[in-house]
Amino acid sequence: MNFEDLELKIEDDVLSFLSSPSFEEEIETARDYFYSFVGQGEMNSELHLDFNSWLMYDYKLKDGQSFLEKYYIVSLGALPKEEADFIHQLLDTYLSIYEVVEAQNGYVKIKDIFSKEIYSVPHENIRDIQDKELVMGRIVGIGDQYWLAGNKQYIPGVFKITIERSMLEGFEDFKKKNRYTSWKSYLKGHSEVLHKHLGIIEELTIQNDKEGDDLYYVWQSVYLIQDTRNIKKVLLAHKEIMLDDEDRGTLYFKMMRNKRILCEMVLKNNRLELECTSEEDRNKAKEIIEMILGENGKHFKDEILTMDDLV
Q1: d(CA 171, CA 181)
Q2: Which one of 16, 66, 151, 254 has the fewest beta carbons within 10 angstroms of its own beta carbon?
Q3: In which domain, by residue range, is 269 found?
């Protein structure tokens, strides 16, 4: 099955279905909401707000259905089996952001930066981007295979911390109102929030290109650990530090403060890196980490990294 051709055909058919005059008023309402929420700034060829994709997958009509779901119900009897099966799987997808982990043997391993779930998609499914870069899309599973569907948006990896921080605040508020929830539930109902962040990133990259200045910085501090045997346990003993991920001996932590991300930390061998999005946050994070490490940690250096350094 050629997933790419199938996906393009389905999107064309759904957009044709949407051209019916009976949907005109509903689509205008959706358009007004989308652009009033996410903004409508200057776009370039790399990052752009995709109203059509949001309209097709995520906008809910008055009856609670998405346009994709309505098309599926109306057309089900006339659809070829493989097309019907693909749409059925698409209905359960949600928009998220994935980090490229590695490429090997014709597949690219990507990780959802929110749920931390890992998928392998065919190399031709996404363009040739570097490890640690980000791509926004929706994972669809067909049998034992995965495909990254939707109009994929590629995002510089430097923005990962900012996106995680902003989304976490909304997710925590959502959890207060929904006791049993997950990132999937939150993202499935709040895709426009991701589009809004994409718009902010878009503005930053355009300003950076126009002005030739780096408008995005990461404040980094590096510590050298003398005794690494119990360092994971020592860090996790602090109530505001949580293990975010572990990959081939490298540990990734988040340091929280007042229910928001204060900094991200990477521990590899005897080197601990702190990454913050402001100097004020870095100063607070350094105070905490130096209190935790004591004599076991030696401050090595502070740096301010620009977008060009990190991309």
Answers
A1: 9
A2: 16
A3: 217-310
Tokens of 5: 């051709």
Same domain assignment for residues 145 and 227:
no
Q: What is the mean pLDDT of residues 172-181?
A: 84
pLDDT tens string 205-222: 665 555 555 556 789 999
263 and 166 in one domain? no
Q: Output the CA–CA distances (angstroms, integers) from residue 245 to 138, 232, 240, 249, in the order listed.
A: 21, 12, 16, 10
Task: Evaluate whether residue 299 is within a structural domain.
Answer: yes
**pTM across the whole model:** 0.75
42-97 confidence digits (pLDDT tens): 444 344 457 888 999 999 988 899 999 999 999 988 999 999 999 999 999 999 99
φ and ψ at residue 135, rounded to 5 degrees: -140, 135
CA 186-100-86 angle, to 5 degrees, is 60
Is residue 236 within 8 Å of residue 242, measured between CB atoms? Answer: yes
CATH classification of the domain holding 253: 3.30.310
Please tell me the predicted confidence (pLDDT) of residue 208: 57
DSSP 220: E
The whole-number pLDDT of residue 236 equals: 94
Q: How far is CA 268 from the centre of its chain?
A: 24
Could you give the number of structural domains in the chain? Answer: 2
Tokens 């990254």 -> residue: 148
The alpha-carbon radius of gyration of the chain (Å, integer) is 22
Q: Between the CA of residue 281 and those of 38, 39, 208, 222, 297, what are the distances in Å? A: 27, 28, 23, 15, 19
Q: Which region holds residue 81: left if phi is over 0, alpha if psi is between -120 and 50, else beta?
A: alpha
The tally of CA atoms less than 13 A away on the side-chain side of residue 229 is: 1
